[in-house]
Specification:
This protein is mainly β and about 180 residues long. It has one helix and 14 strands; from the N terminus they run αββββββββββββββ. A hairpin with a 4-residue loop joins strand 13 and strand 14. The relative contact order is 0.26. About 5% of the residues have low confidence.
Length: about 180
């Protein structure tokens, strides 16, 4: 009896999916790092901010090539459950459903004291997926250190932001932006 190698691989993969616990949850902290010049309290303008992440399925380790937008105020029903989550998605490869839910605590502003080092700004509970990258975009705000001037149109899409604080008479900016996820 001849058994094809692809059939054996399919059977092993099916067994792997069956034995892999879907409901394994993990809490990930999004840690943000930037060099701040004469500004503090960098954070999204409001809770309706659309966070953009690269997502990896923890069942088959497939990485979604697209940036996935998640709004912490949006709630989507989980299939076969009475629960909801901020993000519910199905892996294109293994077809498993996964979800993510922001922690209800407010986003922690990135302050001048944090400048140049990683600081946790938000916590997200993930089931069946893992966030592997964060792309800050527009709709951030910051406050001038010397003047208290509010900058409500901070766009971090290009990886930096620069402006001029009229009250303080100084240039202000955010540069060297990096982020990473850590289990918390």
């Amino acid at each position: 009896m001849v058994v094809s190698l692809s059939f054996v691989r399919l059977e092993i993969y099916t067994l792997f999916l069956f034995l892999t616990p879907f409901s394994a949850k993990q809490k990930l902290g999004l840690f943000f790092k930037a060099d701040l010049e004469k500004v503090t309290d960098v954070e999204p303008v409001d809770d309706e901010y659309e966070w953009h992440f690269k997502v990896k399925c923890t069942t088959c380790n497939e990485v979604n090539n697209n940036w996935v937008g998640v709004n912490r105020l949006s709630q989507t029903d989980l299939n076969g459950s009475r629960g909801t989550a901020n993000l519910v998605m199905r892996c294109k490869f293994c077809k498993r459903e996964s979800s993510a839910q922001f922690d209800p605590t407010p986003t922690k502003p990135y302050t001048n004291d944090d400048s140049g080092q990683f600081a946790k700004i938000v916590t997200i509970e993930c089931r069946g997926l893992e966030f592997i990258d964060f792309e800050p975009r527009s709709d951030f705000k910051a406050k001038g250190i010397d003047s208290g001037t509010l900058f409500n149109d901070v766009d971090l899409t290009d990886g930096y932001w620069a402006d001029y604080d009229e009250k303080a008479g100084l240039p202000v900016g955010i540069s060297q932006i990096k982020s990473e996820f850590r289990k918390v």
